From TrEMBL, chain A:
This is Glutaredoxin. [2Fe-2S] cluster binds at C31. The keyword Hydrolase does not apply. The gene is grxD. It comes from the Bacteria. Belongs to the glutaredoxin family. Monothiol subfamily. Residues 18-82 form the Glutaredoxin domain. It holds the Pfam family Glutaredoxin. PANTHER family: GLUTAREDOXIN FAMILY MEMBER, GLUTAREDOXIN-RELATED PROTEIN 5, MITOCHONDRIAL.
TrEMBL record, chain B:
Belongs to the BolA/IbaG family. The lineage of its organism: Bacteria, Bacillati, Cyanobacteriota, Cyanophyceae, Oculatellales. This is BolA family transcriptional regulator. It holds the Pfam family BolA.
Amino acid sequence: MTQDVQQRIDSLVQQNKIMVFMKGTKLMPQCGFSNNVVQILNVLGVPFETCDVLADPEIRQGIKEYSSWPTIPQVYINGEFVGGSDILIELYQKGELQQMAEVALAS
Amino acid sequence: MVSPDQVASMIKTGLPDAEVQVQDLTGGGDHYQVVVVSALFEGRSLVQRHQLVYRALQQEMDSEAIHALTMKTYTPQDWQALPTA
């Protein structure tokens, strides 16, 4: 991954309390797993930023190295990698995701 | 494309004590759901647990032989505590 891509990812992750790297956009998710993440965050009613990796192949490859996580979507809260679709679902079902989001938005 | 047995054996190579259940979600050999029970998960967060399993399947994930992987990770205690259906 080039320095430039690393910096672009860093700034996206640092500047957005809740950041989602996904396939497609909030309104037009292009993959079931990405859609899961968007729906969960919509239900929680928290503001979140997205990046469509389909439109940016460099980010799509770089993000996998950045978090050493091989799949998309990837969710970051307060600059920290939280997980993909199934972890989001599990955290949501346990009520932990709500807490994490509130702490992030309050900080 | 990989077979369920290959997925199970690769996970066991990475997590020698693991009990693994593999389900091919679509029959196409590239969308899998796995349940992994291992003492190595103790004290590890969900993300760390999943990363252990992903590392065991690194090549297949990078080559997209496995396109999508959903997983449930348990320690032996978690597993026993589960209500048996």
